[in-house]
Amino acid sequence: PNCEIWQSTRMPLPAAVAGVLGPEGARKSDRARVEKQRVPLRPTDVVPQRRFSSENILAADPVSDGADCSRGAIVSPAPDPAVLDSFGVTLFQPSQGESHAELSAEEKSEDEAHETMLKILKARLVKIRAAKTLFSSNPDLVVSHLIKVNDNTVSVDVVPVLVASLKSQTRTHSGEESDNCLSMAACFELLQVLRSLIDATFEDYQLVAIKAVDTIVTRWDTRLRALAKEMDGPASALGQHSISAQGMYVQLVGMRARIEELKSGKGIVASAAREVLSKLQYL
User: I want to staple 230 with a disulfide (CB 3.0 to 4.6 A). Which of 53, 138, 223, 237 is the partner?
Assistant: First the structure.
């Protein structure tokens, strides 16, 4: 189609020219000037309509305020410190190097702590597996293993198993103890481990130790009472008792003071301490 742009804007004539031509001449001259300014526009000269899209917008020319839009990034202008000060706000912008350094140090410390914990748990697992293997052959060897490793975290897991086996001890037809039970010598050595647990600050450790002492005293009550009666007698009478029985008696006397301290507290530990002290009155 033939598209034409008509420029109908009228420019007033200068006053000197209008005065010479007069009103009628001025109107004729004005119409002639308008006809002359009427220019037809060819179809090929029509400017196509521009389509705006996100790509065109991002690729626009840089804005006059100095923002960097050369790569399509829309950068917000920095806040004016004076405006922030009027609201009592201080602008703090840590350097990028410092923030990355702090983050890297924190991640590194967490990784090191995780690796350390894994090593501790793996070492504990190896010790517990060794105790399990020894227990299947001879429970007395487990006590020697606990004394050797000297680790309360391992002892607190193994001692309850030994106590359970001590409660379920059986005897053969000849009156001797079966092979799957703790001997008196092993119980005497176990008191060293229990003393370390009872002196710990954790209530779980203290409770395990007190229950084990209660089981040992109940198991060997007859021999301990007989030994207590002869403690004030002649030394020849003590010779009738084994070294393990005498050592166990001395160990229990030394632990009694600590158990009396625990009974003054509250909770399940104090209750267990009072119960075992009632069985140690003859010491």
Answer: 237
